C-alpha cells in the first residue's frame, strides 16, 4: 500500500477544469484548451506523498524548470505558453504556475544516466547491465559511465514504481522512429545540462524527461532538471564507492528510515509528519541547487 497520506482537495477556479492530482502537481485545463500546471510544495518518498510540505518547493521547481527550458531552447521546443496567473487563481499560485500547450504525451519516462547509482546500480550489480545495456566490470556506486546512456522506464501511477525497460521494449510500444527520437533528444538534453551543471560545480548524475508531440514536432514537457527529476551531486564531494551527497530529498529519506521516525518502510502504515529540522534542511538543499545552477539568489 502507498500513495497519498492525506490526498488534498483540489482548489476550484472559475474557468479551469481540474484534470489530475499528481505527486507534486495539480493539472487543470482552461477554456482555450491549454493545460495549467500548478506545482505544490508536496514531497514524496518511498512511493508515499508525505503529509508535510516543504515551503517554496513548488516555486523552486517551476523557476528552475523555466531556467532550464531557456538553456535547452535551441535543442528542443518546450510546452510553456505563459507564466501569467489565470484569472481568479489564488495569489499563492504565483511563481509556481505554468500555462502549457496540450501535447500528445509519449507514455515513457526518458531517463539519461551519466553516472551509476540508484536502480541502475542495483541492476548492474546483478547483471552487469542497465536496461539491457552492457557496462564495463568494476563500476561502483557513483562511477562515471564511459558515455551517457538512455535507460527508459514505463510511467507508473501514483504510489507505484516506474519500471525500467529496454530500448527494444520502448520501440515495440511507441514505434522505432519515435523511440529513436526520444533517445536522441534525451541524450542531447542531458549532455547540454551536464556540461552547464559541471561549470557550476555540480554533477548531473542522471535525470528524467517527459516528451509529447505537437503535431509532428517532439516537445519537452512537465518539469526539467530539477532536484525532483534529477540527481545533482556537489562535484567537490564526489567520491565513487559510496552514496553521494545530493541536492534532493535525501534528508527526508534518511529520517524516514531512521529509528527516530518510528516508521517501518515494509509496513502498510503511512509515514509520519516530518520534523521541522528535516523540513528546513530539505528546503535549504532545493534553494542551494537553484542558486548554484542559475547564479541567482533565491527570494
UniProtKB/TrEMBL annotation:
Q: Which SUPFAM superfamilies match?
A: SAICAR synthase-like
Q: Does the keyword ATP-binding apply?
A: yes
Task: Show where the SAICAR synthetase/ADE2 N-terminal domain sits.
Answer: 19-269
The record's listing under PROSITE patterns reads: SAICAR_SYNTHETASE_1, SAICAR_SYNTHETASE_2
Keywords (alphabetical) are: ATP-binding, Ligase, Nucleotide-binding, Purine biosynthesis
Q: Which Pfam families match?
A: SAICAR_synt
Report whether Coiled coil shows up as a keyword of the record.
Answer: no
Q: Which PANTHER family match?
A: PHOSPHORIBOSYLAMINOIMIDAZOLE-SUCCINOCARBOXAMIDE SYNTHASE (PTHR43700:SF1)
- Name of the protein: Phosphoribosylaminoimidazole-succinocarboxamide synthase
Q: What is the lineage of its organism?
A: Bacteria, Bacillati, Actinomycetota, Actinomycetes, Kitasatosporales
Amino acid at each position: 500500500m502507498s500513495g497519498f497520506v492525506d490526498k488534498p482537495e483540489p482548489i476550484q477556479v472559475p474557468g479551469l477544469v481540474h484534470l489530475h492530482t499528481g505527486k507534486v502537481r495539480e493539472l487543470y485545463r482552461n477554456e482555450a484548451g491549454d493545460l495549467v500546471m500548478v506545482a505544490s510544495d508536496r514531497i514524496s518518498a518511498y512511493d508515499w506523498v508525505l503529509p508535510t510540505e516543504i515551503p517554496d518547493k513548488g516555486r523552486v521547481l517551476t523557476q528552475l524548470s523555466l531556467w532550464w527550458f531557456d538553456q535547452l531552447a535551441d535543442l528542443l521546443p518546450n510546452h510553456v505558453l505563459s507564466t501569467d496567473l489565470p484569472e481568479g487563481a489564488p495569489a499563492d499560485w504565483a511563481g509556481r504556475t505554468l500555462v502549457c500547450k496540450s501535447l500528445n504525451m509519449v507514455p515513457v519516462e526518458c531517463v539519461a544516466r551519466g553516472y551509476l547509482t540508484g536502480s541502475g546500480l542495483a541492476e548492474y550489480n546483478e547483471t552487469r547491465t542497465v536496461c539491457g545495456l552492457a557496462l564495463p566490470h568494476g563500476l561502483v556506486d557513483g562511477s562515471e559511465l564511459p558515455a551517457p546512456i538512455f535507460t527508459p522506464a514505463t510511467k507508473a501511477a501514483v504510489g507505484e514504481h516506474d519500471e525500467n525497460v529496454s530500448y527494444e521494449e520502448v520501440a515495440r510500444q511507441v514505434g522505432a522512429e519515435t523511440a529513436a527520437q526520444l533517445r536522441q533528444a534525451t541524450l542531447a538534453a542531458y549532455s547540454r545540462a551536464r556540461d552547464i551543471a559541471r561549470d557550476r560545480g555540480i554533477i548531473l548524475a542522471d535525470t528524467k524527461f517527459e516528451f509529447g508531440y505537437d503535431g509532428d514536432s517532439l516537445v519537452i514537457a512537465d518539469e526539467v532538471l530539477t532536484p525532483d527529476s534529477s540527481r545533482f551531486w556537489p562535484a567537490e564531494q564526489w567520491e565513487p564507492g559510496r552514496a553521494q551527497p545530493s541536492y534532493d530529498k535525501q534528508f527526508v529519506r534518511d529520517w524516514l528510515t531512521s529509528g527516530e521516525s518510528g516508521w517501518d518502510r515494509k509496513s502498510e502504515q503511512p509515514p509520519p509528519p516530518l520534523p521541522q529540522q528535516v523540513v528546513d534542511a530539505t528546503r535549504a538543499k532545493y534553494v542551494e541547487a537553484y542558486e548554484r545552477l542559475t547564479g541567482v539568489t533565491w527570494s
